[in-house]
Write a structure and sequence with these properties.
Blueprint: H1 3-17, H2 24-35, H3 42-59, H4 61-73, H5 76-102, H6 104-110, H7 114-130, H8 143-155, H9 163-173, H10 178-203, H11 212-235, H12 243-256
Helix pairs in contact: 1-3, 1-11, 2-7, 3-10, 3-11, 4-5, 5-8, 5-10, 7-12, 8-9, 9-10
């Protein structure tokens, strides 16, 4: 497979797995064990993640504008509301940041353990299945609810735990309306992904190659379609439909690897 074809394939996988609640990290760990797949490298990972951020921004462009614009042109009350909501996002980002800093080495070692990823995929299946029994509520996001979603994002650092599935399920569990829980989850993803990208670029400014722009474009397009599909699934209260897949893959991993 030539370099361009490999980039396109990785970008398609990234665009799908980053948004659908099946844990891209878990599949990478298992894929390494079965097929000898390797991580695409820091530069390629940065490009693919930039593509998924572009997809999120494009999909939620109106909501992001409504969140940010009152800070510069709104009255006192709209400005305070926007600042409060942005504050909730940064509060929810803290748990994952703290866990990542304190336990980075231990977490990294789990990315070479396919059995652990298999177990966590089964946990993801259980998390997704619980959404079948959650009644739709419309409680506003506040500090405790934002922190609960943030803690779930920190748990999703583990390979095999779906970040989108875990955070959306937690949002619904604490009473946040389904589409709002998804929106909050992906706003968090923007902060988390851009933070990781900036850190990686700070460590090595010569990561980027021109062909990676293809990966950015493809992962953005595929990611946008996958995100649109996921939101329809969430609004229909059918996030649980991904549970059987995660369960099957998790059990198969424990049996055969």
């Amino acid at each position: 497979m030539n370099e361009i074809a490999k980039i396109i394939l990785l970008a398609v996988i990234q665009g799908i797995a980053e948004f659908l609640p099946v844990s891209s990290s878990g599949h990478l760990v298992i894929g390494k064990a079965i097929f000898g797949l390797e991580s695409p490298g820091a530069g390629m990972e940065v490009a693919l993640h930039l593509g998924t951020v572009i997809a999120i921004i494009a999909f939620y462009r109106a909501d992001l504008r409504d969140l940010i614009s009152p800070i510069f042109s709104g009255g006192v009350e709209p400005r305070n509301k926007s600042l409060r909501n942005i504050g909730f996002l940064f509060l929810a980002t803290l748990p994952a940041g703290i866990i990542g800093i304190l336990f980075n080495c231990r977490i990294e070692s789990l990315f070479s353990n396919p059995r652990f990823a298999g177990i966590m995929l089964i946990v993801t299946s259980a998390i997704l299945a619980t959404t079948l029994f959650i009644k739709g509520m419309k409680k506003p996001i506040n500090m405790p609810r934002a922190l609960a979603v943030g803690i779930s994002q920190a748990i999703a650092i583990l390979p095999g735990i779906s970040r989108s599935g875990c955070t959306i399920a937690m949002g619904e569990t604490v009473g946040i309306e389904r589409s709002e829980a998804a929106r909050f989850s992906f706003f968090l993803a923007i902060i988390a992904i851009l933070g990781a990208v900036v850190l990686e670029l700070f460590k090595n400014r010569n990561l980027f190659r021109w062909e990676y722009s293809i990966g950015i474009a493809v992962s953005a397009i595929v990611g946008y379609v996958a995100l649109k599909l996921l939101i329809k699934v969430v609004e229909a209260n059918k996030l649980w439909i991904f549970a059987p897949y995660c369960l099957i893959v998790g059990i198969a991993t424990l049996i055969f690897i």
